[in-house]
Amino acid sequence: MGIGNTFVLNLCLLITVAYLANILYKYGLRKMSQNTLYVLSVLLMILAGWICMKFGFRFADDVLYDLRVVPLIIAAFVYSSPLTMVLIGIGIGLARLTLGYSEAAMVGLLNLTLLGFVCAGLNIWMRRTHHRFVVKGMVTILVVNLVNSLNITLFGVMPAQRYLFEVMPVALPMSIVLSLLFALILRDFQLGARQNLELKYANELLRKQTDELHKAKIGLEDRAKQLAQASRYKSEFLATMSHELRTPLNSIINLAEMIGESDEAGEEISEYGRIIHKSGHELLQIINDILDLSKVEAGRLEITAEEVVLAELPVWMQAQFERVAAQKNIEFKITQEAGLPDSIISDPQRIIQILRNLLSNAFKFTHKGQVELDIRKAPADDTSETEWIVFTVSDTGIGVAEDKQLAVFEAFQQADGSISRRYGGTGLGLSISSNLARLLGGHICMTSKEGQGSAFSFYLPLKPAREHNGEVS
User: Fold this and answer.
1) What's the CA angle centered on 334, arms 333 and 335, to 5 degrees?
2) Cα–chain-centroid distance for residue 198?
3) Residue 344 in 3-state DSSP?
4) CA 377, 362, 371: angle at the middle one, nearest 5?
5) In this structure, are residues 388 and 378 in contact, taking their beta carbons and an 8 Å threshold?
6) Does position 415 have pLDDT exceeding 80, yes or no?
7) What number of other Cβ atoms are within 10 A of residue 356's Cβ?
């Protein structure tokens, strides 16, 4: 067997050793301590060098040519401590003595010891430089093989001229090529093992995250059930208490009205009665608002579908707010577009409630100018094929700042904290109106400029109550 065949055999044996070592690590050695694994890996490198020598090419009875330097090259890439390369070099050199003590064996010990120091220096160089891994690998393989050939030339038992012209032209190129090939195989194996390890860690992390998300989902579901139950209890409590409060409050209002209109009571007592009557009405309105809001939140507010005569709505609003407009010296206008249907199908009580809330707010926050209720028809838009009846309440009052316009539709919210102190009220009117509008199939939108007034538009689906033949649909 020639040198080339022997070197190929050495490479195959090194690959086999690496594969068996990986199997042992995967199925038995992984649980050992780091120190134990370190010692075993050093012994494995020495064993790999001994196997290469055991199956090396015997040029003479005591002269061996093999790839014993390859495990030392690999050690320069693997270990972080330079001393480890020196130990492996000396270990492989001593292993040479087990194959027979001779002058060539002692030269081999000296050669591997020197190569151990060379690999230690290369290890320090690789860790301190920023070259690519490929560059570092090529330099290390070339330097170790060249130093090995130089040592054999200088210290070998074979005449230098014979080695240089007969052995080195074959041994050196093959040693470089096979060293590079083995390094690439181990590098690919290392990358594959790293990817598998990263994939394992990723799967483990994903599993933990999945478990945490599942636990969080269960917690959120329990919390949502608790919040829904608490909200239901709150809404039911408000609905019940509001209903219970209205009964005695109606009695107080009626008695206060009787005292205020009594001819037998003195003027002072009558005035007290009128104050109680007025305050009772305001309190009753607040209670009614809370009752409506709690019913909406609890899903207990019933909407009826009846015939609503559109011509009656302006009359009701005029009768209710005409006196308020006169007291505040504000012009109150109601305009109605021609061509509207005589009647529609909806809930008249809720329509009146929404318009009353919008007009009450308009008069509350308007000190001069006018309040107007405009009733018109709006065509279908891109988002809906429904035609609309639009009730727009506009005023010339204080207006609402742009950054506060969304807050006015939230329960117990007003555009400014000082508003409630100056004008009174709970901030429920617009919230209730917005919820009622949705229940009726419509919505409320607003435009406003601070200091210039506001306009609230209540969009109600146009459902005519009479077809063209005059019959009720």
Assistant:
1) 120
2) 23
3) strand
4) 65
5) yes
6) no
7) 17
Residues 16 and 52: beta-carbon distance below 8 Å = no
3-state secondary structure at position 198: helix
Place of tokens 């909806």: 346
Element spanning 453, H or E: strand 453-461
Q: pTM for this one?
A: 0.47
Record the tokens describing residue 224, joined without a space. Answer: 């949502």
β-strand partners of 309: 343
Residue 411 has pLDDT above 80, yes or no: no
Please, is 122 exposed, middle or buried when counting C-beta atoms within 10 Å of its C-beta (0-12, 13-18, 19+)? buried
What pLDDT does 58 receive?
A: 82
Strand 331-336 relative to strand 370-378, pairing: parallel
How large is the average pLDDT for residues 204-222?
89
Dig out the tokens for 221 from the structure: 């579901």
Residue with tokens 């609503």: 308
- The first and second tokens of residue 104, run together, are 């060539």
Q: CA 376, CA 378: separation in Å to the nearest integer?
A: 7
Residue 347 phi, psi dihedral angles, 5° rounding:
-105, 105
- Residue 461's Cβ-side half-sphere holds a number of Cα atoms within 13 Å equal to 15
H/E run at residue 336: strand 331-336
Q: Distances from the Cα of 473 to the Cαs of 198, 339, 393, 465, 469, in angstroms?
A: 70, 19, 30, 6, 10
Query: CA–CA separation, 84 vs 77, rounded Å?
Result: 11
Does residue 208 register a pLDDT over 80? yes
SS3 315: helix
* Beta-strand runs (E) in 2-146: 57-58, 64-65
Q: How far is CA 249 from the centre of its chain?
A: 52
Residues 6+ apart with CB under 8 A from 273: 256, 257, 258, 259, 260, 261, 262, 265
Q: Are 176 and 147 within 8 A, CB to CB? A: no
Encoded amino acid at 26, one letter: K
| 408 DSSP 8-state letter | G
Say what the pLDDT of residue 371 is: 94
Q: Which residue has the higher pLDDT, 370 or 239?
A: 370
